[in-house]
Amino acid sequence: MGERRKATRYPCDVNFEIDLPDGGIKGQSQNISARGISCVVDHYVPLYARMTVEMNLPGEDGNHYRFECEGVVVRIDPEEEQPDASSYTVSIYFPDISSEKSLELDLYLMASQQINS
Prior knowledge:
Elements: E1 10-11, E2 15-20, E3 23-33, E4 36-41, E5 50-58, E6 64-77, E7 88-93, H1 99-116
Antiparallel strand pairs: 1-3, 2-3, 2-5, 3-4, 4-7, 5-6, 6-7
């Protein structure tokens, strides 16, 4: 199967909030692109669940880039809720991100990679 991603993924280790209709949970990002994020959460989130992702991405000189976007779960591992699971790996797609917000996030991510290289 060929690569379907349309945006470059960048490694990103940031704690953030996920607001779901029935409450909020915390996430730890693994990587992020202008179209989605891969993260680890400590609660099961159903496939196709809609949510708001809120994070403060670190920048130069201690400044932060505030990012908030609607997302939908497109992958979760393990796929079903497990009583003994301490974490789940989740992929969240940003289906409704505006072109402006997507470009802004992509520019931020490219600049932060140059700073950290």
